[in-house]
Write a structure and sequence with these properties.
Helix content: 40-55%
Shape: extended
Distance between the termini: 17 Å
Oligomer: single chain
Strand content: under 5%
Largest sheet: none
Radius of gyration: 18 Å
Order of helices and strands: HHH
Number of helices: 3
């Protein structure tokens, strides 16, 4: 949602849902937090749909090997877990796109 409002992402912590709701009021838009979340979700899905329409293939997403070699603050990433998460992400995006 924030990138669609053309805001500086360095200041994204300033733009809470309530601040954005208040900013829309002078324009005559009375939005709730759920309204903003719904709009943000739709924007995200439309962006993803555009990428797919332009040739992006979600099934080709892969993790670079080096991310499994470098420890995180929580330890090593498990390649099996990450592949399962990616598979779930693909399925979720594909399912959500059906709602457009």
């Amino acid at each position: 949602m924030l990138t669609s409002l053309v805001l500086c992402l360095f200041a994204r912590g300033v733009y809470t849902l309530q601040v954005v709701i208040e900013a829309f009021k002078p324009l005559g838009w009375e939005l709730s937090e759920n309204d903003l979340k719904d709009v943000g979700k739709k924007i995200h899905l439309l962006k993803f749909k555009y990428k797919l329409d332009e040739g992006f293939d979600i099934s080709q997403l892969r993790f670079p090997k080096r991310i499994f070699e470098t420890p995180t603050p929580h330890g090593q990433l498990d390649p099996v877990f990450m592949e399962q998460a990616l598979k779930l992400y693909r399925a979720r995006i594909e399912e959500e796109l059906k709602s457009l």
